[in-house]
Design a protein that fits this description.
It is a single chain. The chain is built from twelve helices and eight strands. With about 300 residues, it is an alpha/beta fold. The chain has one domain: TIM Barrel, CATH 3.20.20.70. Strand 3, helix 3 and strand 4 form a beta-alpha-beta unit. Helix 3 runs parallel beside helix 4, helix 8 runs parallel beside helix 9 and helix 10 packs antiparallel against helix 12. The longest helix is centred in the C-terminal third of the chain and has 18 residues.
Length: about 300
């Protein structure tokens, strides 16, 4: 399986909705164009910041088709899956494949706390249900309460040929580095999952990153990646230092509202979050504005 396309800056695109919590197709198409023009290398539909939890299966399918259609093959489109049960995850994986995604990103089950054996079976059954279709694991212990252990990851990539990567959002560089080290003997890509640690992940050997700030500042995020590829780490550090305070300011909002809040502040018209989340308070929004101002950033086409 050719996995050369899994690299670079992949943006977990936000899902613009109207007051009735239905996908706003016009805004979604516009956002696809914005991030492609900004130089991203891939789009992830329904990542955490795409609010996967707010959509029904038919909405996931229709929204993915819109993104795939608007992208028109220019960059790969991945579909995120966040599910507790194997049955639902398999159903969504098949939807993603049939709707034209280039691969899927699968979060470990939330709320429950499976054993290593149960977690292995979860991912293996999903992979077996969509043979010859790339599956990227998504490690996010901050939201699920537990890690996908490196030993489980290695067992999966050694036994399931279409499990070909992982997005590591642990924020633990020991974990990221160990995944990269152990996966060297497999066709397997490690992607950084923390916008504040793109440089660190790339220095260790990550293939790229999944960065929510690329929704708003795609050119800045891409510049960090490009400088790392060119081994100009000092230039990458300077760009990372611009980005980090903005991402940290976003954390003042309730998760994952910060992405839409910042997008709205900067003129991208992302719309509201899914309830029960609400847009941030004026104090939270002011902190984001200040971080952007101190970084000297402006929207390309605000």
């Amino acid at each position: 399986m050719n996995i050369d396309f899994i690299k670079g800056v992949i943006v977990p695109i936000f899902t613009p909705i109207n007051e009735n919590e239905k996908i706003d197709e016009k805004k979604l198409r516009k956002q696809v164009e914005y991030v492609i023009e900004g130089g991203v290398h891939g789009i992830l539909a329904y990542g955490s910041n795409g609010e996967f939890f707010g959509l029904e299966d038919d909405e996931i399918e229709s929204g993915l088709k819109i993104i795939v259609d608007q992208t028109a093959g220019r960059i790969p489109v991945y579909m995120g899956i966040g599910s507790i049960t194997t049955r639902k995850a398999v159903r969504l994986a098949k939807i993603g494949r049939e709707a034209g995604a280039a691969g899927i990103s699968v979060l470990q089950p939330m709320f429950i706390h499976p054993s290593d054996e149960e977690l292995y079976d979860y991912f293996a059954e999903i992979a077996e249900a969509v043979p010859d279709f790339p599956v990227i694991l998504y490690n996010n212990p901050g939201r699920t309460g537990y890690q996908i252990k490196a030993s489980v990851v290695m067992k999966l990539c050694s036994s399931c040929t279409n499990i070909v990567g992982i997005k590591d959002s642990s924020g633990d560089m020991n974990m990221t580095a160990e995944l990269i080290r152990q996966a060297k003997c497999y066709p397997f890509k490690v992607l950084g999952g923390k916008d504040t640690l793109i440089l660190g992940a790339m220095v260790y050997g990550a293939a790229g990153c999944v960065a929510t700030t690329a929704n708003i500042f795609p050119e800045l995020v891409v510049s960090i990646y490009d400088h790392c590829v060119s081994k100009n780490y000092e230039a990458a550090r300077k760009e990372q230092e611009k980005l980090a305070p903005i991402r940290l300011a976003m954390d003042k909002a309730s998760f994952p509202v910060g992405t839409k809040d910042l997008a709205n502040i900067m003129g991208l018209n992302a719309g509201p979050p899914y309830k029960p989340n609400k847009s941030g308070t004026e104090e939270v929004l002011a902190a984001m504005r200040k971080a952007v101002e101190e970084a000297g950033l402006k929207m390309k086409n605000a």
